[in-house]
Write a structure and sequence with these properties.
Layout (H helix, E strand, L loop, with lengths): L2 H6 L1 E8 L4 E3 L4 E5 L7 E8 L2 E4 L17 E7 L2 E4 L8 H4 L4 E3 L10 E8 L3 E7 L6 H9 L12 H57 L4 H10 L1 H10 L4 E7 L5 E8 L2 E8 L5 E3 L22 H10 L10
Parallel strand pairs: 3-5, 8-10
Antiparallel strand pairs: 1-2, 1-4, 2-3, 4-5, 6-7, 6-9, 9-10, 11-12, 12-13, 13-14
Helix pairs in contact: 4-5, 5-6
Length: 324
């Protein structure tokens, strides 16, 4: 049997997969054919030469017992990160956020468990190989972590274990802060949606009232109600009563009054009205009693003023004060 025969033989082998089209063992890499695993870690492959085919299995895959040839690192688990032996004291928390991720961890491992890992990509990715014999204080440190206590009085805590404890505390604080910010953002979104819904409901109500006012604009009361929402529409309707045509409506010097320009009998006129009642405050034409000197402007409304102008024209006594 030659070496070509050996390469052509199929055999099952436990290999590491960290993504991509390549599976690994301690010595070489294999090109994956067909489907790839669904999660990073140890998997069974059918190996033929340098080609590997993933063997889909629901069973947990045990890492290889032989660690010879692996670049191994020992340390403490902090979540899915490895805080390696020899970490500095006091721990640099921000630096610990760059601690390598451990893949292929079996379920149920407590925090601060000592483990042996294969450093696949230095400083980035590790694969779990097995549990290491504990250093001693890990159970007490775990209790202190769960009870939110200090570990300063626990004897035998080495720098790596202290770093793992500090890192998990910081991760806990960061997670709480992220959850708080998430809650605040969600509450703000809910408030914004409620406010938007309230604005839309108020706008629908306003439009409904406005539509009702338009339906009732044929009456004097309806025109006064309309003036509270749409003064131009109210003036337009009021002038149409006597056949006048609205030109413009603008604010006056007084906040309670408006200046109205209109066209009537092929002439242009201007008057000042009360913005709420459409009552005339300045007719723009002479309405003063020659006998008493009393001004009659306020006796009329925007509806009746054009009729007064018609009568003055018919009697040839029209005097315009506000020329347009």
């Amino acid at each position: 049997m030659g070496w070509q025969d050996l390469l052509s033989q199929n055999h099952t082998q436990t290999l590491a997969w960290l993504g991509g089209k390549t599976a690994l063992d301690a010595k070489r890499s294999y090109r994956i054919q067909g489907r790839r695993p669904q999660h990073r870690g140890w998997h069974q492959f059918q190996v033929q030469g340098r080609r590997a085919t993933w063997v889909s299995s629901e069973e947990e895959i045990t890492p290889p017992y032989e660690v010879g040839g692996f670049n191994t690192v020992r340390g403490y688990l902090a979540g899915n990160r490895l805080i390696a032996d020899g970490s500095a004291y006091p721990p640099q928390i921000q630096a610990l956020f760059g601690a390598p991720t451990v893949y292929g961890l079996p379920p149920g491992l407590d925090p601060f468990t000592r483990v042996l890992c294969w450093e696949v990509v230095p400083g980035e990715s590790m694969l779990y190989l097995g549990i290491e014999f504990p250093a001693g204080p890990e159970p007490e440190v775990l209790i202190a972590f769960e009870d939110q206590l200090s570990i300063d009085s626990i004897p035998g805590v080495d720098p790596a274990l202290h770093a793992a404890f500090s890192f998990l505390r910081e991760m806990e604080r960061v997670e709480e802060e992220q959850n708080r910010l998430l809650r605040e953002r969600q509450e703000a979104e809910v408030r914004a949606l409620r406010e938007q819904a309230a604005r839309e409901a108020a706008e629908q109500e306003r439009l409904g009232r406005l539509e009702e006012m338009r339906r009732n604009i044929g009456s004097a009361a309806g025109r006064r109600n309309m003036a509270q929402q749409d003064l131009r529409a109210a003036c337009l309707a009021a002038l149409q009563v006597s056949g006048a045509e609205l030109i413009s409506v603008r604010e006056s010097y007084s906040s309670e009054e408006s200046v109205v320009r209109f066209r009537f009998l092929e002439r242009r006129f201007e008057c000042v009205i009360n913005s709420s009642t459409l009552a005339v405050t300045e007719a723009g034409i002479c309405l003063t009693d020659e006998m008493t000197g009393e001004r009659g402007d306020t006796r009329f409304t925007l509806e009746s003023l054009p009729s007064v102008i018609r009568e003055a024209i018919d009697l040839d006594v029209l005097v315009v004060f506000r020329h347009v």
